[in-house]
């Protein structure tokens, strides 16, 4: 259940105690498996929902799609079914949606959210928000502004869940996205389209555009958790956590947030300096120097 060691787990104890034994510029918790990590994150989300319930207030969640949050959503559904966690006081805003796409399309993010979370809990349909991939081109900008207005009207996002794409994107904020960017229509990076092409039966059928919350929209969330599993995410996790803050890797902007945690499994942590070249840090480095 626990990551490497309790002292290595800033996720469960709030903001990092910034030990000098790390190269990471964000608090980062490593769990042995994605299942254990997802359970820990689900527990935190459940605690937020329950504490808001006790105050008679709404918990506002920012949600992600992709394979990464599947285990988190499965755990939230389990908490609803088996432990009575109610979503009646929850409002959700999804990060992004392909464009153009009909909400009922089996590969739309709206469909994904219904299938993996919304249809299995007691959330009010009107409280779930996903950018509308079927908005006419002429009104997409107005739709994006309205999405921002709805987030603001809900009181802002309390807890933002993120995955990370192999281009380092959060939401669909591809390399080059500005820190001040807001919800907007974007063009997808070729690597992102290639990664998605399996879902759409080939690259030629994969949408070229998307609507995404901006970097600024994401950074406005009061708490952010970025999830990453598997060896194929190891390099980009290292770049986002240890590299410079740059629009070329939009996840690196998270280093500037004061309540963010990266939550990764052992495979996704594999390229971090503390695992790949541990002699560069902490006690080992001291021994090398002495
Ligand atoms: C897409 C989504 C991202 C997601 C990424 C990674 O690009 N827009 O929000 O983080 O895919 O997907 P996966 O979790 O399947 O690796």
Question: Summarize this, please?
Answer:
This protein is an alpha/beta fold and 290 residues long. It is built from ten helices and ten strands.
Number of strands: 10
Instruction: Tell me the helix content.
Output: 25-40%
Number of helices: 10
Q: How would the global form be characterised?
A: globular
CATH topology tier name: Rossmann fold
Name the bound molecules. Answer: 2-amino-2-deoxy-6-O-phosphono-alpha-D-glucopyranose
Radius of gyration: 19 Å
Structural class assignment: alpha/beta
Largest sheet: 7 strands, parallel
Q: Can you name the CATH architecture?
A: 3-Layer(aba) Sandwich
Mean pLDDT: 92
List the helices and strands and how they pair.
Elements: H1 10-13, E1 28-31, H2 34-54, E2 59-63, H3 70-83, E3 90-94, E4 96-99, H4 109-116, E5 128-129, H5 140-153, E6 159-162, E7 184-187, H6 190-200, E8 209-212, H7 215-219, E9 224-228, H8 234-242, E10 260-265, H9 273-276, H10 282-289
Parallel strand pairs: 1-10, 2-3, 2-6, 3-5, 6-9, 9-10
Antiparallel strand pairs: 4-8, 7-8
Helix pairs in contact: 2-3
2-amino-2-deoxy-6-O-phosphono-alpha-D-glucopyranose (GLP) binds next to loops.
């Amino acid at each position: 259940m626990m990551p490497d060691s309790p002292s290595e787990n800033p996720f469960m104890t709030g903001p990092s105690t910034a030990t000098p034994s790390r190269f990471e510029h964000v608090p980062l918790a490593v769990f042995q498996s994605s299942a254990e990590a997802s359970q820990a994150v689900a527990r935190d989300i459940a605690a937020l929902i329950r504490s808001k319930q006790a105050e008679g207030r709404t918990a506002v969640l920012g949600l992600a799609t992709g394979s990464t949050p599947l285990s988190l959503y499965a755990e939230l559904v389990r908490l609803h079914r088996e432990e009575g966690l109610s979503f009646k006081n929850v409002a959700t805003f999804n990060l992004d949606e392909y464009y153009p796409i009909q909400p009922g399309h089996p590969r739309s993010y709206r469909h994904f959210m219904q299938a993996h979370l919304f249809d299995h809990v007691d959330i009010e349909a009107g409280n779930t928000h996903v950018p509308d991939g079927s908005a006419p081109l002429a009104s997409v900008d107005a739709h994006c502004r309205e999405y921002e207005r709805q987030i603001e009207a809900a009181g802002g996002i309390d807890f933002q869940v993120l995955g990370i794409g192999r281009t380092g994107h959060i939401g669909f904020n591809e390399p080059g996205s500005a820190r001040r960017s807001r919800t907007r229509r974007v063009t997808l990076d070729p690597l992102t389209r290639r990664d998605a092409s399996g879902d759409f039966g080939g690259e030629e059928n994969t949408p070229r555009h998307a609507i995404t919350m901006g970097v600024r929209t994401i950074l406005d969330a009061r708490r952010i958790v970025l999830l990453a599993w598997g060896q194929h995410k190891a390099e980009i996790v290292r770049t986002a956590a240890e590299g410079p803050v740059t629009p070329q890797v939009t996840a690196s902007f998270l280093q500037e947030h004061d309540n963010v945690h990266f939550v990764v499994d052992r495979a996704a942590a594999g390229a971090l300096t503390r695992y790949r070249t541990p002699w560069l840090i902490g006690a080992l480095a001291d021994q090398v120097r002495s």
